[in-house]
Design a protein that fits this description.
alpha+beta; 2,3-Dihydroxybiphenyl 1,2-Dioxygenase, domain 1; eight-stranded mixed beta sheet
């Protein structure tokens, strides 16, 4: 079964610059290593049980030679050239082979669970299985089952957690669409979950259907007024646009960003009554990055 959102993949044109920007946002983020045969490399900010991933093309020639059509790498260069940001939301499975079989039983076009991995700068080998949807179900989600235990995966970075912005977990990731009802029905079929009713999002100014995957939510959002979702839809079309992280202190996060030259983040009130802050694509490498928690 799908147990949670594992992470969001934020694609950037230059990895060192992306690392610098997310450090300004208050994340302890470090080079994660290279992907052999794909020409890409990444950076990781590990939270409690999930993480932030920045991905960039390391070697254009190697990436082009890979010709990985039908994988999550297809079209990466074009996506980055168009502004980058959140390209995929990665969902964690506890048995990906079984989940692939179940999706196919529901008529979902999905590839096999294929083993992959990367080597960290310190030489640690990380292994996983991953599966992507086929052309008949072109949704911006990828499925993963980690083969390396989480205790070992936390060791891939010098500091896992204890971020200056107080962030400790992903709360929700959002995908914008022009028709939330129709899109939610498709996601329900793919995920094997009931279709949730629409609720009104007051920060992203959207009607949204939220699929609860363990402690994390996958929100399918349709704008009803100008705001972050409408901006993302106009700028890039349907797709992932925001990740919302829970912090132990929004005040501490705001002070860190101010001390590191960031402009004050926009503030809003969620439909839960909680206050939230939002970094714009200009300040978060093409993504909206939200923070919610106590002052």
């Amino acid at each position: 079964m799908f147990t949670r959102i594992d992470h969001v993949m934020i694609c950037v044109p230059d990895l060192p610059q992306g690392i610098e920007q997310y450090h300004k946002l208050g994340f302890n983020i470090y080079p994660g290593g290279t992907h052999p045969g794909r020409g890409t490399h990444n950076a990781i900010a590990f939270l409690q049980d999930d993480y932030v991933e920045l991905l960039a093309i390391r070697d254009q020639a190697e990436h082009q030679a890979a010709g990985r059509h039908g994988t999550s790498d297809a079209g990466l260069a074009d996506f980055i050239a168009a502004g980058g940001g959140i390209r995929y939301i990665i969902l964690q499975s506890d048995d990906l082979t079984a989940d692939v079989a179940a999706m196919r039983g529901r008529g979902v076009d999905v590839g096999d669970a294929i083993e992959g991995g990367r080597r960290t700068p310190a030489g640690q080998e990380l292994r996983w299985k991953a599966a992507v949807l086929g052309p008949r179900n072109p949704l911006p989600i990828v499925f993963i089952q980690h083969l390396t235990p989480i205790e070992e995966r936390r060791k891939q970075v010098p500091i896992a957690g204890n971020h200056p912005n107080g962030v400790y977990t992903l709360e929700r990731a959002y995908i914008v669409t022009r028709d939330a009802e129709a899109a939610a029905a498709t996601y329900a079929k793919v995920l094997g979950l009931p279709q949730p009713p629409l609720q009104r999002g007051t920060v992203i100014m959207s009607n949204m259907a939220v699929f609860q995957l363990g402690p994390t939510g996958l929100g399918i959002a349709q704008p009803y007024a100008p705001g972050p979702a409408a901006d993302a839809l106009e700028r890039r079309g349907p797709g992932p646009f925001q990740a919302l992280y829970r912090t132990t202190s929004m005040g501490a996060a705001a002070r860190w960003m101010q001390e590191h030259g960031m402009p004050p983040l926009a503030r809003g009130v969620r439909n839960t009554g909680e206050h939230a802050m939002l970094a714009t694509p200009a300040d978060a490498c093409g993504a909206y990055i939200g923070f919610v928690g106590p002052e």
